[in-house]
Amino acid sequence: MLYMKNILLPAMLLLSASLYAQKDFTVRLWPDGAPLSNGLTGPEEGWDCLWVRNISDPDMRVFLPEKSNGMAVLVCPGGGYEFLAMNHEGLDMVPWFNEQGITMILLKYRMPNGHSEIPLSDAAQAMRLTRMNARSEERRVGKEC
C-alpha cells in the first residue's frame, strides 16, 4: 500500500500540473468603459467557474496552445441570457482546441437586460481585438512559405 502511494501521488501531481500549465491571460473588452450600458450594476455573481452572471466589465480569456497553428476560435458560452455557462460551454473545450494547436478565446459578455445590442457589441469588440492582435502577431513573426 505504501508503495502504491509513493507512485500514485507523484503521478497525480504531474497530471494536475500539466492541466494547469496552459498559458492563458485575460483581456478587458472596454478598458475605458463600455460605450453602451445594460443598466446592470453590483458585483458579478458566479459559482466555481461553472456559471457567471451580472457581468458589467466584460472580458475575454485567451488560452494559448503550446505550439500554435495560427488559428483561433472565439467561444461565446450560452445560458439563455440569464447567466453564462463558462465551464461546460467554454473551459471544458480548452484542452481539445489547444491540442489541435488552436488558440481558444472565451468571451465573458454582458447580458442584454432589455438592451439587445449589448451582447452583440461585446462579441463584435472581442472579434475586433482578436483580429487586430492576430494581424500584429502576423507582422511581427512573419509568414513562412
Give your account of this protein's structure:
It is a single chain. The protein has 145 residues and is of the alpha+beta class. It has one domain: Rossmann fold, CATH 3.40.50.1820. Helices cover 34% and strands 19% of the residues. It has three helices and six strands, in the order αβββββαβα. The strands form two sheets. A four-stranded mixed β-sheet has the order 1-4-6-5. It has a two-stranded antiparallel sheet with strand order 2-3. The radius of gyration is 18 Å and the shape is globular. The N and C termini lie far apart (56 Å). Mean pLDDT is 82; it is low at 1-20 and 139-145.
- CATH third-tier fold name: Rossmann fold
CATH C-level class is Alpha Beta
Radius of gyration, in Å, reads 18 Å
The name of the CATH superfamily reads: Alpha/Beta hydrolase fold, catalytic domain
Question: How confident is the prediction overall: mean pLDDT?
Answer: 82
Structural class: alpha+beta
Name given to the CATH architecture: 3-Layer(aba) Sandwich
Short note summarizing the structure:
This protein is α+β, with helices and mostly antiparallel strands.
Offer a few descriptive terms.
34% helix, 145 residues, disordered N terminus, four-stranded mixed β-sheet, single chain, globular, Rossmann fold
Task: Lay out the secondary structure.
Elements: H1 2-19, E1 23-28, E2 45-47, E3 51-53, E4 59-64, E5 72-75, H2 94-99, E6 103-108, H3 117-141
Parallel strand pairs: 5-6
Antiparallel strand pairs: 1-4, 2-3, 4-6
